[in-house]
Amino acid sequence: MNKDLTIDKKRINRQFMHYVIPSMIAMLFSGFYSIVDGLFVGNSIGNVGLAAINLVYPIQVVLNATATGVGIGGSVLVSIYRGEGKERDMEHSAMQTIILLLIFGAILPVFFLGTKGIILNFLGAEGAIYKGADDYITTILIGGMLPVLGNGLNPIVRNQGKPIIATQNMVAGLVTNIVLDYVFIYKMNLGMFGAALATITAQGVVATMNVIYVVKLNHKNFKMDYILPNITKIKRIMKIAVSPFGQTIVPSIIIILTNWKCIEYGGDGAVAIYSVISYVLACAQLLIQGIGDGVQPLFSYYFGANKERELHYVYNKAFFLCSIFSVFLMVMTMVFSVQLAKYFNISPELMNETALALKTTAFAYAFFGVTRVTSAYFYATNHTKFSNLLIYIEPIVIAPAMLWIFTELFGLSGVWMAYPAIQVILSSISLVLKSPNMEHKKELKVATVQ
After folding, report:
1. C-beta atoms surrounding 117 within 10 Å
2. Is 63 in contact with 152 (CB distance < 8 Å)?
3. pLDDT tens-digit series, residues 248-289
4. How many CB atoms lie within 10 A of CB 252?
5. Contact indicator for 202, 169 with CB cutoff of 8 Å
């Protein structure tokens, strides 16, 4: 890579903030779709509605994870080609990403509609919770194409130099969701169906706006073969997509594992407590992931442009910002734990335990930044083996082990205590993989993108 000792830090800092701030806002808003539903449902229907949404959240996240994975996979190629100055390849990659999103947006909802009964039983839904979960997820899946397009095209819009537009689209969707939740749930008394209808309509707004902008940004050199499947580019998109897919899906796998432990050690009350924790946790994770996703275009651009010093300068800056935000979120959650529990209208008898659980899990936030930025660095620079290891070792090995050990020792309290332990281990692995010795080894093994 380029070893030029001088870099324009002011220009890089401007680029950094230009991408990172909108990305943080966009990621937070993307997660708010389900969180807003939780707030309205929790205050209108109560613990049963809250638990129902939490139980089916993993299904919804599969759609979002697929969209995010494919979208970021395509956007990484877009940024690398921008760095290499290959405009036609950049536009071709964007169009191939749309084709992939359309394919997944058609297949996944049909699959889940056909298997939802089996999945709901597998997730532990029973009685009133089962009915509420079924009403909610059926509506989401009928409109399943919309969240796939909306979430999948957002990284493409961002990586083509329009992060503010990408964020504006997300804001438009969130405002739509809030307004429709109020109308459908409070005014029309549509319950779980109304919450899902509001969410899917809002995501339709985002999808429409993103499609318009992507077509507008890539029509200049458009050729008909851009919409025909290109195996080479599809393979490269999917190879990169594995990491961001995992980064989005892993929290849902953790939700499933944790729900099982909650049901085992505390029943429906513990599930309701965890539903509040998972919403707050999602906000923290999305903010930190927003920093990682925000710097990804810069990582990929400087990697494609062969500018090593700029690449590592951006990484160090992102690492520092993530660390500061992680600690800030931890402190804020601890200070306002009771207020957070009240916002979700948790039952009075569960209030104190919910506040304590929020404080315990908040210790995990301090370590989020290390893993999020490092994994984003790896997949954005085509080092997918390291990013995949860092992402998938959590649900396969670390989380099950920590949940088992801590619940055996401390019962239900051990569920909350396992979260900080998981993040300490993951952050340690991240630092080892990003160490100078490992950096040198991987540079010898990984070829620059052709």
Report:
1. 12
2. no
3. 888 778 888 898 899 889 888 888 889 888 888 888 888 888
4. 20
5. no
For residue 98, which of 77, 79, 78, 70 has the smallest C-alpha distance?
70
> Which residue ranges make up each domain of the chain?
29-445
Would you call 446 exposed, middle or buried from its count of C-beta atoms within 10 A (0-12, 13-18, 19+)?
middle
Residue showing tokens 């919403």: 279
H helix count then E strand count, the chain: 16, 0
Mean of per-residue pLDDT scores for the chain: 85
- Is 444 a residue whose pLDDT tops 60? no
pLDDT in tens, 315-342: 999 999 888 989 999 999 999 998 888 8
pLDDT at residue 364, as a whole number? 92
Rounded Cα distance between 292 and 23, Å, is 9
d(CA 310, CA 190) in angstroms, rounded, equals 53
pTM value is 0.79
Nearest to 217 by CA among 75, 94, 98, 97: 94
